[in-house]
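Field: COMPLEX_INPUT
Field: COMPONENT_COUNT = two
Field: RESIDUE_TOTAL = 481
Field: MODE = joint
Values follow.
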Amino acid sequence: MIKPFFVSLGLLMMLVGMISIHYFYSDDKTSEKMLQNISSITQVSSASLSVAYYEPRVLFYEKMDNPAYPQMLSINKMDFVYAR
Amino acid sequence: MLGKRLMNSTFLHFLTLLLFKQKSKHIGAVLISVIIIFLLSAVLFISSSLQHSLLSTLKTQADFSVSRVQAGKSVNTPLEWVDKIMEINGVSKVAPRVYGRYFFTPRENAFLVVGIDFFDEQNSEELKKLVEQLDLKTFLSSEGMLVGEGVKKFLSAHYFKDYFTFKTPQGSFKKVKISQTLPIKANLIANDMIIMPIDLAREIFGMEEDEVTDVTFNVPNDAEWDNIITKLHLMFYDVRVVEKREIKKAYENLYNYKGGLFLILYLVTITTFILILYQRYSMVYSTERKEIGILRAIGWSIKDILKLKFYENLTIVLVSFILGVILAYLYVFIWDAPLLSQIFLGSANLSNNVSFTPVVEFGLLGSIFLFYAVPFLAAVLIPAWKVAVTPPKEAML
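Field: COMPLEX_OUTPUT
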């Protein structure tokens, strides 16, 4: 059973090798450059989050607010502090 | 020489015989381990890849952005602030930004519209690198826009093949030509993005000519940053300042929360799994007890038995861990993590197909291995040792 054991081990090592080759030789520079280009042009670096329209898309610049119900005030912890 | 010795080793022969002959016994443990390791590694791969990509884009971002606030909300910023900020010593590259979300009412979807100055030399150079076929002269001769992959798909599905008609807050309509699509490799940022000339963006948002969304600028000397913030607060009383270092810190923590949530789930699952394993090996009538009893009866020492159990289970641990990590790598970096990516990028608006940049944190993988291997081996070796120290006769009963 030593032979099949070493054959399986070899197959596993081959998989690890293939993954390593992909990791070290993958072309991540192009996509990184493109992301840097687009963020340099637009000055927006937030990920394109697929969020609902009332959730912030440009992080840190937009606040959570429901435009459909602007009269509905959002609850924050201060409301609970002054509840009484 | 070593190969020959290995092939003739009785211990190795017996170990491999045990592993192959008792396949059905090990396959369950391997399968559960692979699933647990796969899920956790996949989540950690996605979070570190997103973090890495977003942090790399911060290099090109301005150090500060300021906007006007009214009643705690950001409102349009006067363009004259640009000149006022320029007067502060130590400030460079002051630029206005016009951006916002355009809500497409019929389908309740939103696009991020960004207005840029196409006549700016740096912008036009970067654009040429990004969209190679773009002819700026033709583009600027008519009212056009560049759209992200997600926007293009969405508009095409709604019969806006070449043009899209925006509705302005004044109630008028603005027909804008879809000139080019932004490259798919920029989807992480640009999927729902529309880039257009700054004046056109102002018109669509109903902004005055002397208004912008916010103003960005750089302060090359880091030591001056706090000083500049004080100056800004003295200059304007209704200002909100966002610093790049705040954003950087937030990006570092952004996906740690979701990654942490999975880590807790992992800990719960692995504890349950280890308990089950421990239970299985310490059962009174288990085959394990019998096997150890026989080995002890034919003269194996406790040390030999523990050595055998250790290597047997180490093989299972290593195989499961390597398989789990390989599967997670393939799932995230080759197949772009279908389903799981939605946890990180959301699915409430336009669907986003992001190609993740391969980023593997070896330190983190090492920690996962330790958190998995040590309890696994302990859960097997402790009951095995308990059986091995009992007299063989009792163990086989």
